[in-house]
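Contributing new records

If you add data, match the layout below exactly. Sequence lines come first and carry their own label; structure lines follow with theirs. Keep one chain per record. Anything else will be rejected by the validation script.
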Amino acid sequence: MNIALGADHRGSDAINRLAERLRGQGHEVTLHGSTGGETCDYPIAAFEVGQEVAEGRADRGVLVCGTGIGMSIAANKVAGVRAAVVNNELTSQLARSHNDANIVCVSADLLGLRLIEQIVDRFLSTEHEGGRHARRVERISAIEQGVSPHADPS
């Protein structure tokens, strides 16, 4: 799987460890943002990862900042991105299975590295369930295109 990773300065340690781990699992990884702890603005990394995912150059994305919230807000401005802030394995799984999230955003400040790894593992191993959830994702896409989600997406 091709995975785009991005971090600001608060998430650089976590993203470097994740990159090493994911490459060891056989994934292709690209890095964006701060990889050496240098100060950077999180919207830049969020945009770059979002573009990679939306354009199909990456299958999924992982963003790490202090809380995960800023990254999520910024990434969700890229058309085709469904970025979810998650804080445990269950929310990671549900973001994928129900919402077809293609980017996971996590907190470097509030979560330990082991939990971040577990969240990412669950995110990468979970597929979208489709069914009633697909209809809801289609309604999200309608909003993104400026169309009312009240219309029947089918």
